[in-house]
Amino acid sequence: MNKLKWLTISQSIVLFGTGIVFPFYVIFIKEIGANFTEFGIAYALFALSSALVHKIIGSYSDKFGRKIFLLLNAWGVAILFLLFPIVTNIMQVYFLQVILGVFGAMQKTSEKSIVADFTDGGMRGKQIGNYHGWIAIFSALAVIAGGYLIDLFTLEIIFYIGSIVLFLSGLAILKIKEK
Amino acid sequence: MILKAMMKKRAILLLAVLGLLVYGAIFLLSVQTIQEKPDGLLINDVTHIYPTYVKEIVKENQTQSLVEAINDAKHNRLKVSIAGKQHSQGGHSYYDDAVFLDMKNYKKITNLDVENKIITVQSGATWEDVQDYINPLNLSIEVMQSSNIFTIGGSLSSNIHGRDPNYGPIIETVKSFRLFLEDGTIINVSREENTNLFREVIGGYGLFGVILDVDLELTDNLVYEKETTLMDYSEYPDFFENNVRNNKNIGLHFARLSIVPDETFLRETYATNYKTTNNYIDGIFELQEEQNIARDKFFFGLSRKYDWGKELRWYLQKKLEDNPENIEIVSRNNAMRPPITFLEYYSSRNTDILQEYFIPTENFVGFIDGLKKISQEENINLLSVTIRHVSENNDAFLSYSKQDSFAVVLYINQGLSEKEKDKAEKWTQKLVDLAIENNGTYYLTYQLYPTQKQIRQVYPEIDSFFLEKKKHDPNEMFMNKFYAKYALGEEDE
Prior knowledge:
- The complex is a heterodimer.
- Chain A has helices at 5-21, 25-32, 36-64, 67-83, 90-118, 124-152, 155-174.
- The radius of gyration of chain A is 17 Å and the shape is globular.
- Chain A has 7 helices and no strands.
- By secondary structure, chain B is an alpha+beta fold.
- Chain B contains 14 helices and 19 strands.
- In chain B, a hairpin with a 4-residue loop joins strand 6 and strand 7 (118-122).
- In chain B, helix 7 packs antiparallel against helix 8 (307-321) and helix 10 packs antiparallel against helix 11 (418-437).
- Chain A binds chain B through residues 75, 78-79, 82-83, 85-86, 88, 156, 160, 163-164, 167, 170-171, 174, and chain B through 12, 15-16, 19-20, 23, 26-27, 29-31, 33-34, 37.
């Protein structure tokens, strides 16, 4: 459990940061003036670009460690979130989606690998269950917080708050001890 | 071992600090950019020359809710400004920290008297709404701008004119309208009732109250044959006199001068007449939508930037649009909705503006000579110069066609930096002086560039107009940047 402590904390924060934004992303796309076809394309671009890099990231993470990729994801997405409020057209959104896909792949592959690294045989299920339990709670809280923030302020505010949260999660990632 | 651990700790700390610095910088940049980005309460007209923050935007489609919103504003001692499509270009439709009445949803057509050819329409409706409604009944609008995107309320407030040489400004075609006043009452305004307000509100830029609905005269939708004649600009007044004036067969007329910076510049002139014809095919009355928007936008864009682009556009226009050999048959309603979407343009660095000078027909040549000189001296980026005719009309308090005039319409690209705005102000003042020398007027609907002295030279009645406004609206609740500048002396920084 101790090994997983900072991983759990940091990834809970990551999920909180992204969870504030993504459920409301569709409203944002609408405000840019895009239609649902364009929205579909934006999501597909995200999935496609992660599909292309998952494998490479997997092998690089074997070589350089998982932590660096978790950090890249946290800080990378934190910066991308700062760009969303200032985009003005759908082409820019497409571009951001492609990069988000790459960061997303970094997070998914490295997270799974590091969890596997940190757990072993008999206790693995219980530990992973515990890890996901925490993360899920933060996701849920994030969605509530996101909606509340939009009602209270503007749509843009969720990107800024999400971004700050993600940046802080990077600091927590720095506390993870891989070996 | 300990040393290595310490170094690793240091490295992590360094990474965290570095990360924080980079992230912080990008964060500030993003926040700064978004603050510059137009947000909901930043109002601009079509030119973006006078960006202004308003207090609140009211967008109602019911008279009752509109009235409540204005009463609320009055209660809270807020100013009220009234907007349609915001193609007036001197802040006539907005004011700092005012309640901004966006009338575009207030657009029902409430009655059509086919026998007497009178339509009753709410002021936020556009000419397109009216055309769509009356075209099946083979009726047509008497006076409207060259394009159909404008609202009826905005058109009345600017007392616009059109291309039908048989009419003067729109005031000639208005039967009556309902006006919401500052004191909360709604009154009927016509040539028989509240006659002063009839003269003041039409061409009164929203300073007396809110125009609710309007009774407008209509005419028959005819079929025209479009015919274009090439000439030198000096021959144009005679051409008009001999072929167009008092010729009831001509339903629409305009002329276009070359803007190509070569020997044709402001010389080569195409005069276009739309003559009634009975020679037409089925389906001619069906309303047409704008075509080739991307193509036209592209070529117009080139002409905005390059002299060779101006040449190319002039050449293409000759070939495709104004070719004297082409005979085009078109319904009045279709001729009154020519393409305009291709002119939509937004850049943070420069903008397209309109100006219009009304010159007594006998002084036309002198004015164009002066225009040529000033545009060359001042390097004005002229994108088009077109001519229409406006008959003498003194119905409106602020009448611009005090004599039979040619309306010289200039479409110009100007920069948006302070320096460029100052330049534009300077050459506009020269053009206004030129109009004054030629006994003409300038159109108040455009930029606030003319000086206090110039507006009083051209419109000596302007101060009594402002006094009339104060009489009807003592607290100056209905407010805009035009009034603020010329009545109150407020300068835009």
